Amino acid sequence: MEAIDQGIVAGAAFDVFESEPPAPDHPFLKHPKIIVTPHLGASTIEAQENVAIDVSEQVLHILRNEPFNNAVNMPPIPANVLNILQPYFSVGEKLGSFIAQLTEGPVQEIVIGYSGDLAEVDTQPLTRYIVRGVLSHHLGSEQVNIVNSMHLAKERGVKIVTQKSHTAKDFTNLVTVTLRTKNEERLVAGTTLTGYGPRIVQIDKFTVDVAPEGHLILVSHNDKPGIIGRVGTILGNNDVNIATMQVGRKLVGGAAIMVLTVDKAVPKDVLAQISELPELNNAKEIMLP
Question: What range(s) does the ACT domain occupy (predicted)?
Answer without folding.
Answer: 216-289
